[in-house]
């Protein structure tokens, strides 16, 4: 592959892929282009305008493009919508200068994963070009919402730290809705009413003490205490024993949302921290691609686990489907790249120089990957029905009779949240008809349960259920909402509760009064569905953009209708006319299109002299760097600014 260049996103993968393939590898370092401020030039076809993020990126990428001349190019940017969008932008530049251009997907950075990706590579022109339409629909749609709606609410609420988003706003609306439910509950006197149950404290013949509860609810303490008074001469007897088995399946291989939830619950990692660490593990070739909505794992991996662990008593071969929420059956769940024993993790940590957090997340993914190929755990659950006079008191016990996946490789520690607080873990050696000693009675308060704040772990599953966003976006929601001061994170023990602030509540209430559609999960879910249908070629790019833009008050222009320019546009046009000493076109104040065309035509002609301060600084920089001032610097502010920027950076 000496005449081959592979183009990827992350520079951290370059050396490894070069070593495996022998090809030269370049990295785009993520998105190298961004939408211009204008977003689109023509609101008939909504074709977006992308530009390099800055001059240094432009220079670096042009170097990559120049090296592509006459060579075989494999574009292997990340295997998701965003990755395809980045790859397409590379393709558009080099398609006429490269010898050939192919699209490959690397789902794991291992020798077999790279080989498989290269074998399945297709000419880029034959790849799913509709995926780029879907990418630009998402990019343009989200930018339009932010560009048009954010300034409106910044002005309305007189707060610069405000943003509206097609995805972030409905996510916030869910948090605010829960906050208002909690507030309403706490302010309702009926919510504070307490009822009571009677708890009997009992003792078996062999001295084991336990409690049993009667299900009757007493409206007040007096009624409950009166009932207890009737039990003075009562005896307790085991009336009935019911024993059943229950089985617990191992968790399916992680999709992105499930990895984020589990890492938050077990390791206390935020979603963005989990994704950042997972990115590093992926780049080191330790796990498969970490942005996925699929639960499936490859037949190859299932066979590797079988070969390694088939003699283990706990092993059971299992296959998993992608899941109802998945848009790509071909994509895999997040799993380890190489099958190995638990004892080898220490060796991997040393070899790959993993820090503690990386080790913890890798171990979590390792256990999930292997335990997904294990037998069910089996519990024996027993309910004891104890009769005291005419009332039935019940207690439950549960014991594990077969560990299954919970004993595979590492003892699983049951989470406190998963336990039934009324279920005993002690053994009760009882049979029907046994008499029990009554040690006394207690009253158990029965309070109405207030709605609970979302924890970060269960909020992610809610977003997935509501159809808000995609796996790659979940980690970005909370940091944005925190930055805007719409929410705070309150730590309670191991839990991290998401709490809406007064600002967040006020923001959602204001936007609901004017643009309720952008707060609704259903609209965003529908838009996400349209994005998927664009990728599948079922609908067109415009089927996404036009309805979204119309929701923001835009009506398509035709011969009989016009829309005036914004105040900002008109102000810019007037400033250009004044600077260039030309007249404004007729009707510019009534037609945004006339205004836009005037600005586009004249913005590059706006030549003004620099200020005295700018010119003085330029002269000072020229002296200190021993260079001549550029020609026309005294007449053109742009020439002066460019010169200053160049030499300020060298200081």
Structural class comes to alpha+beta
Strand order of the largest sheet: 8-9-12-11-10-14
Mean of all residue-level pLDDT scores? 89
First CA to last CA: what distance?
A: 43 Å
Described by strand count, sense and barrel closure, the largest sheet is: 6 strands, antiparallel, barrel
Uncertain parts: 557-561
Radius of gyration: 32 Å
Tally of helical segments: 21
Instruction: Count every beta strand, where a strand is a DSSP E run of 2 or more residues.
Output: 17
Offer a few descriptive terms:
21 helices; alpha+beta; six-stranded antiparallel beta barrel; 651 residues; 17 strands
Description:
With 651 residues, this protein is of the alpha+beta class. Helices cover 42% and strands 18% of the residues. The protein contains 21 helices and 17 strands. Strands 8-9-12-11-10-14 form a six-stranded antiparallel beta barrel. Helix 8 crosses helix 12 and helix 9 packs across helix 12. It is globular. The two termini are 43 Å apart. The relative contact order is 0.11. About 1% of the residues have low confidence.
Secondary structure layout:
Blueprint: E1 4-8, H1 14-21, E2 24-27, E3 33-40, E4 48-52, H2 55-67, E5 72-75, H3 81-94, E6 100-103, H4 111-119, E7 122-123, H5 130-157, H6 168-187, E8 194-203, E9 209-214, H7 221-229, E10 236-248, H8 256-267, H9 271-283, H10 299-309, H11 345-352, H12 356-371, E11 377-388, E12 391-402, E13 423-424, E14 435-447, E15 454-455, H13 456-466, H14 474-483, E16 487-492, E17 495-500, H15 502-515, H16 521-535, H17 542-551, H18 567-580, H19 592-602, H20 612-625, H21 637-648
Parallel strand pairs: 1-2, 1-5, 5-6, 12-13
Antiparallel strand pairs: 3-4, 6-7, 8-9, 8-14, 9-12, 10-11, 10-14, 11-12, 15-17, 16-17
Helix pairs in contact: 3-5, 5-16, 5-17, 8-12, 8-13, 9-12, 9-14, 18-19, 20-21
């Amino acid at each position: 592959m000496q005449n081959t260049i592979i183009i990827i996103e992350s520079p951290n993968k370059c050396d490894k892929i070069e070593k495996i393939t022998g090809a030269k590898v370049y990295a785009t370092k993520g998105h190298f282009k961004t939408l211009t401020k204008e977003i689109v030039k023509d609101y008939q076809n909504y074709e977006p305008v992308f530009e390099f993020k800055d001059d240094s990126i432009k220079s670096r990428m042009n170097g990559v493009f120049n090296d592509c001349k006459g060579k075989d190019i494999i574009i292997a940017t990340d295997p998701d919508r965003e990755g395809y969008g980045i790859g397409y932008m590379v393709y558009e530049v080099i398609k006429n200068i490269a010898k050939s251009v192919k699209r490959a997907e690397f789902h794991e950075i291992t020798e077999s994963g790279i080989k498989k990706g290269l074998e399945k590579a297709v000419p880029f022109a034959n790849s799913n070009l509709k995926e780029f339409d879907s990418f630009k629909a998402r990019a343009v749609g989200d930018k339009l919402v932010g560009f048009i709606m954010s300034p409106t609410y910044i002005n309305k609420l007189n707060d610069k730290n405000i943003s509206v988003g097609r995805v972030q706003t409905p996510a916030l609306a869910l948090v605010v809705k829960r906050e208002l439910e909690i507030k309403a509950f706490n302010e309702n006197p009926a919510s504070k009413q307490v009822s009571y149950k009677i708890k009997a404290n009992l003792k078996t013949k062999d001295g084991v003490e336990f409690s049993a509860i009667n299900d009757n609810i007493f409206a007040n303490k007096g009624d409950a205490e009166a009932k207890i008074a009737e039990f003075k001469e009562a005896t307790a007897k085991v009336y009935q024993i019911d024993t059943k088995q229950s089985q617990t399946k191992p968790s399916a291989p992680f999709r992105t949302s499930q990895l984020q939830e589990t890492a938050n619950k077990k390791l206390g990692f935020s979603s963005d921290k989990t994704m950042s660490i997972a990115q590093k593990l992926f780049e080191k070739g330790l796990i498969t691609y970490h942005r996925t909505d699929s639960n499936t794992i490859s037949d190859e991996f299932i066979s590797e686990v079988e070969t390694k662990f088939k003699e283990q008593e706990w092993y059971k071969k299992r296959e998993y489907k992608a899941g109802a929420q998945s848009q790509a059956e071909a994509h895999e769940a997040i799993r380890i790249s190489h099958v190995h024993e638990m004892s080898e993790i220490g060796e991997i940590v040393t070899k790959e120089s993993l820090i503690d957090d990386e080790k913890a997340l890798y171990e979590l993914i390792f256990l999930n990957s292997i335990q997904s190929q294990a037998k069910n755990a089996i519990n024996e659950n027993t309910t004891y029905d104890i009769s005291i006079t005419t009332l039935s008191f019940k207690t439950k016990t549960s014991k594990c009779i077969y560990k299954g996946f919970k004993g595979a490789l590492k003892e699983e520690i049951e989470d406190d949240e998963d336990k039934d607080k009324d279920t005993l873990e002690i053994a009760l050696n009882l049979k029907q008809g046994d008499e029990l000693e009554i040690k006394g009675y207690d009253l158990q308060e029965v309070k109405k349960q207030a709605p609970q704040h979302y924890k970060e772990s269960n909020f992610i599953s809610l977003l997935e259920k509501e159809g808000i966003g995609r796996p790659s976006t979940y980690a970005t929601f909370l940091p944005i909402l925190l930055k805007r001061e719409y929410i705070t994170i309150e730590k309670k023990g191991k839990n991290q509760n998401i709490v809406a602030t007064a600002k967040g509540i006020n923001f959602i209430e204001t936007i609901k009064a004017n643009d309720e559609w952008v707060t609704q999960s259903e609209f965003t879910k529908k838009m996400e569905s349209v994005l998927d249908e664009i990728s599948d070629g079922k609908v067109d790019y415009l089927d996404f953009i036009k309805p979204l833009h119309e929701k923001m008050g835009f009506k398509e222009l035709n011969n009989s209708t016009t829309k005036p320019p914004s105040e900002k546009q008109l102000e810019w046009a007037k400033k250009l006319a004044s600077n260039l000493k030309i007249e404004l076109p007729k009707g510019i104040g009534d037609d945004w299109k006339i205004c836009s065309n005037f600005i586009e035509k004249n913005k590059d002609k706006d030549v003004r002299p620099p200020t005295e301060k700018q010119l003085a600084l330029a002269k000072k920089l020229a002296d200190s760097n021993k260079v001549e001032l550029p020609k026309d610097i005294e007449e053109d502010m742009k020439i002066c600014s460019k010169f200053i920027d160049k030499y300020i950076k060298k200081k």
